[in-house]
Amino acid sequence: MEKGRESPKHExxxxxxxxxxxxxxxxxxxxxxxxxxxxxxxFFSITIIHxxxxxxxxxxxxxxxxxPIPDGLSETESEASTSDSVALLSLLNTNCVAAFRDxxxxxxxxxxxxxxxxxxxxxxxxxxxxxxxxxxxxxEIPRIVLRTSSLSSFLAFAALPLLLEKGYLPxxxxxxxxxVLELPPLKVKDLPTISTRNHEVFYKLIGSMVKETKASSxxxxxxxxxxEQSTLATVRQVFPVPSFPIGPFHNxxxxxxxxxxxxxxxSISWLxxxxxxxxxxxxxxxxxxMDEAEFLEMAWGLANSGQPFLWVVRPGLVRGSKWLxxxxxxxxxxxxxxxxxxxxxxxxxxxxxxxxxxxWTHNGWNSTLESICEGVPMICSPCFGDQMVNARYVxxxxxIGLQFExxxxxxxxxxxxxxxxxxxxxxxxxxxxxCLKEKVGFCLKQGGSSHHYLESLISYILSx
Length: 464
Ligand code: UDP
What we know:
This is UDP-glycosyltransferase. By secondary structure, the protein is an alpha/beta fold. It has helices at 3-6, 25-40, 75-79, 85-95, 97-113, 132-139, 151-158, 160-165, 199-214, 229-238, 266-272, 292-305, 331-334, 347-352, 365-374, 387-397, 410-421, 424-443, 449-462, and strands at residues 15-20, 44-51, 65-69, 120-126, 143-147, 218-221, 243-245, 279-283, 309-312, 339-342, 356-361, 378-380, 401-403.
């Protein structure tokens, strides 16, 4: 299992791995990171099948082969993608079937008929590409699933049919604070739901994802046994296929370059001018959105806290606005240079910067992991899907952040920022997250759990 460590770069590759990412930022990043991890072992060549929509920046990966497939999305559907990701993902699972099958069949066949080409060892797809299991079955190649969320949130997704049956869902306002007895420590409000035009489509998509994950040959997780130990035992019962928690992916290599948006590097030079641990970094990821009133409460909470902040306001973050129009004129000036706003930041570098002292996040799983790995305590504002589960674990299980439990009114925001950045509570959270950072940092080292699971994953794939 030492091949890559002796001669990691370009040698002739024995087996081909075909990877198929979901074209959303939070899914694309981990899949491309996984591709790099597996390539660096020296055992595999990498072929990425990808949709035209949100296609990766191919020039950043000269060591991979890329196969684009048509996704059948009209311009309007692509534009609407972030406002209803359930509709988008469901549509893609229908639109891509034929093109994906043809592409994969061609790759598999070329490895069989042409001796100069590597044989395909297996297919690795995002769990959301549920249709790909039947394609893999029909071509008789194993499919391993990449699940880009935490193990705990995937268990919550898997439990949705039961929770519907038991009446926890749809969520009733009067029940939001009630505990979900089957999934401690979750409350009803933490269950992974999402606003979409048609909830039936959501439950169907999740049901298919769970069913086809159970039918797969294994699951790769961007998480760590040391972080989710007891959950891993339950996952093994619910999904009786081999599980490989080999995260955190982004820590195998220096900061990744799979950003779908241009990263504003001026954030780093701005951070360079600030004292250590003084800046609150604020970002809600690539999909979450809010209305103008919420945005203004955030803005005034940030301003009134008196703390320096670096704020990612993605175009599209505020529904109905192009960018910063809702901010009152002169807002930035009233902050006396304490605030800096960009459209998209090099997040991993920002979190690793000595000036960054806190992260106000939507708790997408990548953001949560990145924050843990840099030891930056969090303020949690989960918006949809798995984010509520991640936030509950951050605030109640790992106790490395605080969560807004009922709305984000400016006075509450201001207090929360002070609690995290300057008060004792924040100091305690910082101490706990620094311990966790150390524990998680060990996972990738010789003798660490992720290191061990990566070795088993390689042996497993080579056994196909
Ligand atoms: N990200 C970034 N710049 C930003 C905001 C986010 O590079 O300004 C990256 C972040 O590092 C993470 C990903 O985008 O890897 C967001 O994934 P996550 O799962 O946190 O949230 P999602 O975008 O899927 O909601």
